[in-house]
Amino acid sequence: MNMLKIVAVPMHKEGRKFVAIFAIVTALLGLVWMPLFWLGVGATIWCYYFFRDPVRVIPQQEGLVVSPADGVVSLIEDVLPTPDMELGSEPLTRVSVFMNVFNCHVNRAPIAGKVAAITYHHGKFLNASLDKASEHNERNSVTLEAADGTRIGVVQIAGLIARRIVCFVQTGDTLGAGHRFGLIRFGSRLDIYLPKGVNPMVCVGQTAVAGETILADLKDPDIQRHGTYE
Where are the alpha helices (DSSP H) in 51-142? Predict the structure, then answer.
């Protein structure tokens, strides 16, 4: 095991200015009182790791839906997708992955496909773990369409602390499964809308890893995982 790769994790460019601000404030605190300096050092290291962008091993099997975020599966329920996502008018299974402030916040595409629609919604900043956050919080909806026409919706949701949703893609762009498409700053959640009739292969309480954890199999939609984590 290469310990350098574990400690020196690459940082996404979105975090550079924040780490620089933390470092400058830390240096100024050192001029005031050394204990504050060391607190600042800890905060700067945390900021660096918040924006970490580690390499992931993406499953290559066709039809797999991978998690778009690091975090914990907080909700699995059938709900009506919003019309702007262009996913139809029937209830779909929604898998929610909650990211705390210690998770990697780089978001990855759950499937390979074309960006069919993007819609940004202004909203509140409720706790992202709450069910109503999907409807009331600030959010950005992205619809991906696979080569066979299958569509999956991914929604970036701002949380209690998060105040900035970043989306790297535009309508018409083509993404590979596990490719980076966005980032949310400082604690948030992602909702994934599976196609009609596709069962999730995860359960509530399970830890998900962006680009690696398999959420569903479009080629075998009847596979389903039952269980609870304690």
Answer: 133-136
Instruction: State the pLDDT at residue 4.
Output: 43
SS3 assignment for 154-218: EEEEECCCCCCEEECCCCCCEECCCCEEEEECCCEEEEEECCCCCCCCCCCCCEECCCCCEEEEC
Q: Chain centroid to CA 12: how far?
A: 14
Which member of 67, 96, 129, 188 is catalytic?
A: 188
> Which H or E run includes 49?
helix 34-50
Q: How far apart are CA 163 and CA 188, in angstroms?
A: 9
Residues 112 and 133: their CA atoms lie apart, in Å, by 27
- Burial of 190: CB neighbours in 10 Å, binned 0-12, 13-18, 19+: buried
Question: pLDDT for 180-194, tens place per residue?
Answer: 999 987 668 899 999
Tokens 């970490």, located at residue: 52
What is the Cα–Cα distance from 15 to 170, expressed in whole angstroms?
21
134 in catalytic set = no
Which pTM value belongs to this model?
Answer: 0.84
Nearest to 82 by CA among 71, 73, 94, 72: 94
